[in-house]
Each structure stands twice: as C-alpha cells, then as structure tokens.
Predict the structure.
Amino acid sequence: MNEIRKVTARGVLVPMRRPLVTGGGAVSEVPLALIDVEVAGGVTGRAYVFAYQPFALKALLAAVEGLGSTLIGRPLAPRALYDEMRARLRFVGATGPIGQALSGLDMAFWDAFAKGLGLPLFAALGAGAKRVRAYNSNGLGVGAPDLGAEARELAEGFGAVKLRIGYRTLEEDLAAIRTCREALGPDVTLMSDYNQSLLPAEAARRAAAIGDSVYWIEEPVRADDAAGHAQVRASAGTLIQTGENAFGPPDIARLIEAGAADLLMPDAGKIWGVSGWLEAAALCHAAGIPMSSHLYPEISVHLLAAAPTADWLEVVDWAEPILAEGLSVEAGSAAPPARPGAGIEWNEAAVARYAV
C-alpha cells in the first residue's frame, strides 16, 4: 500500500473580491493554509483550510506540519489515519488550529486516496454524482451601500442568496430584509445570518419579529450556546440554522440533543474533515435533520453527495484565485466534478503572488 512520504503546508493571504462585514466582524482578506500530502507512487493529496484571521495562520500551518509529521511512513488509509490522529489528540484536544489541522489533513488524505483509485471523491465515498442546490454567500454584508442592487447581482445564476444581519436595532435588520426581498422578488430564497452577534433574549425577540420573511436564521447567538439556540428556536417563525463552528461530530451530537436547530451546516475545515463529515451526516440522518455545508464549496459538493439529508451548498469564491479551477454552478445547483479526487489543484503563480 502507498505510504505517506511528505506533508507540507503553505500560507497565502488572498484579497476578497467582495469584502464582507458581518454582525461578528469584518473580513477583507482570506488567510489559507494550503496542504500537500505526497504519497509513494507519485500521488499528491491537496486541501486548504481557512484560518479566519491572519494572525492565526502561523499557528495553523505549524499544527498541520506538526501533526502531519507524525504520520510519515504510514499507509494511505484515510479512516485509519483519522483514528490515529484522534487518538494522538486525546489529551491535546481537537479544537482550534489543532482541530483544523486534523480536518485539513483528513481532507488531503481522502483526496490522495481517491486519486489513487482514479475516482472522484464522491465515488470513492460510494456516492453518486447528484446535484445539490446552491446559494450565493459572497456578499450582502451589514451596511452594504446598495443592498438591493447587490442582491440582484448575486442572485444571477442562483436561486438563493444569504444576507448578513445583526444591525444595531431590530428595525434596521427588518429594513435590510425588506430591501433584499423587494429586489429579489418572490422566487429567490433569502437566508439570513447573525454571525453569533446577539444574546439569547434579544435573538429570540428579533427572530419572532422576523418571522418567515427569511428561509432561515443562522447562528443568532454564540456558537457554543446550544441552550440559547434552542431558546431562539422556540420563538422563531422560521428555521434556525447552526453547526458551522462544530468541532467534530461530538459537537453536532450535542446540538441535536439540545434541540438547538432545525438545520445543521458542518464546516469541512472544523468537523474533522471528510471522516468527521461522514459521522456528522449519519447523526443528521438518524435525527432527520437537513444538512447543508459551510464554506469549502469545492470539497463540500462531494460531501453533500454522500449526505443522506443533503440540503444546501454554500458557495463562496474566496479560494478561487489560488485554485487552478473553481466550482461550476449552473441554474442554482452544482454537481461534484468527475476528475479524480476532490478536484483541488493550485494555481502556483497565484500562490506565489499571495504567499505569506
């Protein structure tokens, strides 16, 4: 069996095409850890992980290379490698940069494994190439100067877009929702995201007032406050979505047990990669909860193909500048590409341009 020969991680800082202001803070550039896992036989598995803040990138890169170095010489068996990483992190913990490193390495291992089989990732997971509906999440930030025009632009080619809310007052939230709805018309789905910006009582008050004017309200309170999410859910007139900050399937299990949300959206870079995603998908399936993705559209489109309760694919273009080929969305849906692996290859000229 092919063995792991080398693990490398490189940092890039990519300017966003459309900087974004959220209720939880502003994002104008994207710090990414680019992971390459070289395997005997000439196959290289690739993945990237979003560090969220530039200052956190150095720690993430060190975590990837540090954890990866413990696996040199191991056979390329993704599930066994996942179990070994989990065991190695039992006392260290698998959250923060360490949990993201586990996620990124697992994604790269599965990419290399699928390439070695000559199969696209979804097929290596035993899934079919099913299309999944996609929404545009590239803008509509808090305080955007012309929400209506931006909403119409983002809806082109999509049947859904996401609006960031979390203004100073409920009235401003409602005005932003009305502006987008009037611009989009009745046939485009409108999601909303508070980005953890409210306390539970205020979130419950706003969710009740918003009613069903949006398809879902995402992360109204602190991500780890399952009880607060459940409190908001009890008052809401629409669906509550969360789960993007779940570190591993155990966090998903806790959210389900608490009745925290109607919908869940794991993040491939935090849920412990492909292996963790499959475990989370099984939990959502058992609980009858629709499962969407958060960020990472290039690999998430494969993962949703393997999710029994697949719901929505979140599409952002943040990594596209450093990719050889981005994800194609047509008529509001996307299908996983048929090329071997996850389909992630680097645009090395762009990587050099944005290298940290």
The radius of gyration is 20 Å. The first strand starts at residue 4 and ends at 22. The CA atoms of residues 62 and 121 lie 27 Å apart.
